[in-house]
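Input/output pair, single chain:
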Amino acid sequence: MQKKEMKKICLLIVIICCTSCNQDYYDDYNYYNENYYHRQQYIDPPIWIRGIWKDNKDRMIQFTGDDLLYKYPMQKYSSAADEIFDYEKYYLNEYSSYQTPNVQEVELIDYYSIKYNCINTPSKKFSFIKISESKIESTGLMPGIYYKQ
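Output:
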């Protein structure tokens, strides 16, 4: 009799363990929370434009392998990658659905542009023309002539 009861108890424990592990982990922890959501890489500037650029109004643009950072005088850098991620997070949190940031990158021999959606604005577009190895012209957001630092 004790052997049968022991088997029943063991079977009950196994059933409880199996059913308690059946719950989806992501439901409890908001899968799209920035701690769990893997950011996609949308930005990949060409090698020739990577680095820090500055114009005569002290505005700066920095290109890295996966981001475009821009700054106005006496302000902090703003990150295009962060703006894109914030756009994705906003739609996931507010509407529980994914909304594409619609990133459009164009790269030619002496030209680079990126356009993307962001929160509270229709879109942002940066366009750059290579004038020389140390000089580019911005014709989109923050227009002007920039010099490599």
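The mean pLDDT is 83. The longest helix spans residues 2-20.
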